[in-house]
Amino acid sequence: MSVINKRNAVVGWAAWMVAKRALKQKAHSIVPGSNGAGKGRKLVAAVPLAAAAVGGALVFWRRQHENEPEPR
Known about the structure:
With 72 residues, the protein is mainly α. The chain has two domains: 1-35; 38-72. It is built from two helices and no strands. The protein has helices at 6-30, 39-66. The radius of gyration is 21 Å and the shape is flat.
């Protein structure tokens, strides 16, 4: 009998979705004024994060290519 099977995977996924929804609701109840009106702020905050992610990917890609041996 295997511990990892479809039934356990589905039960785990469902538990994760329920827990995530409960935690989101709890977080929204704690933060004052979190009724969804700050979506513009989220977008503005996402721009630098996206730029950092792209920059990190480029640095990673460049370092990977520096370490490759040159073709003969």
